[in-house]
Amino acid sequence: MSGARDDLGRVSAAHPVLASRATSGQQTAPHDEPSRTSSVTWAWSSFAQLPVDHLYAALNLRESIFVVEQDVPYLDADGRDPHCRHLTGFADGQLIAYSRTLPKDLFEPGFFSFGRVVVHPAHRRVGIGRELVTRVLDHLDEIRGNTPIKISSQLYLENFYRSFGFVSNGEPYIEDRILHIEMVRGLCRQGAVS
Ligand SMILES: CC(C)(COP(=O)(O)OP(=O)(O)OC[C@H]1O[C@@H](n2cnc3c(N)ncnc32)[C@H](O)[C@@H]1OP(=O)(O)O)[C@@H](O)C(=O)NCCC(=O)NCCS
Fold first, then answer.
1. From the Swiss-Prot or TrEMBL record, what is one GO molecular function term (predicted)?
2. 134: CA distance to ligand 1 center in Å?
3. How many whole angstroms separate alpha carbon 61 and alpha carbon 58?
4. Whose CA is nearest to atom 42 of ligand 1?
5. Is the CB of 177 within 6 Å of ligand 1?
6. In degrees to the nearest 10, what's the CA dihedral of 153, 178, 9, 45?
């Protein structure tokens, strides 16, 4: 790990994509308007707003990681995408980070959710995944009121999601041949989590 991290774990230097983030002072732009942190351009889109080349890049990144890299044959295009919001992070014209949020009740009745959290392998371990999830949770916190968020986390990331206030629920289970654990986040990020 290189570079100093701030309280969100962001790296202040060392990786070219993030080199000026710590001093940029830039905030998240309103949804649907792209925002930049150093050379990463972040954008939220509904499915209908997602340009076809961005959709293709998202499916390509998702499949290359969740199907090929993790060696799991499963249906990535699962029919939920038209109901989701999609967060893309581009650097130098390449999609390097992606996630989607699921509206209330789509993952499970009574919960919001998000998933397909992915960072391109060439850009990992420099803080982009933490920024991606921070942005996902900022968005969900704006719209969810008191409705909790439930996710099915790969077990190796349990501590990562704990650092965002998620609490594990039950025992690990196998999903698509990979160990997962259900995690829930309640009312607020830094305070008590119900
Ligand atoms: C998970 C993933 C998005 C993290 O992206 P990233 O840009 O490398 O993440 P960051 O650099 O912001 O690191 C954030 C934290 O993630 C966790 N993490 C990342 N890679 C990890 C690994 N291989 N093992 C355990 N924890 C890991 C750590 O808690 C890390 O914090 P630290 O650097 O302080 O230890 C990325 O590794 C990825 O795309 N993995 C494949 C897809 C996947 O498994 N997605 C999750 C589905 S639930």
1. acyltransferase activity, transferring groups other than amino-acyl groups
2. 13
3. 5
4. 118
5. no
6. -60
With H, G, I as helix, E, B as strand and everything else as coil, classify residue 27.
Answer: coil
Domains with residue ranges and CATH for the chain: 21-147 (3.40.630.30)
Residue 85: pLDDT band (50, 70, 90) is very high
Q: Assign 59 to helix, strand or coil.
A: helix
CA of 157 to the centre of ligand 1 (A): 7
Alpha-carbon dihedral sign for residues 119, 124, 129, 131:
negative
Q: 163-181 pLDDT, tens per residue?
A: 999 999 999 999 999 999 9
Atom of ligand 1 nearest to the CA of 130: 12
Closest CA to 62 of 34, 97, 92: 97
Alpha helices in the chain (DSSP H): 21-24, 52-62, 128-143, 158-162
pLDDT at 15 (0 to 100): 59
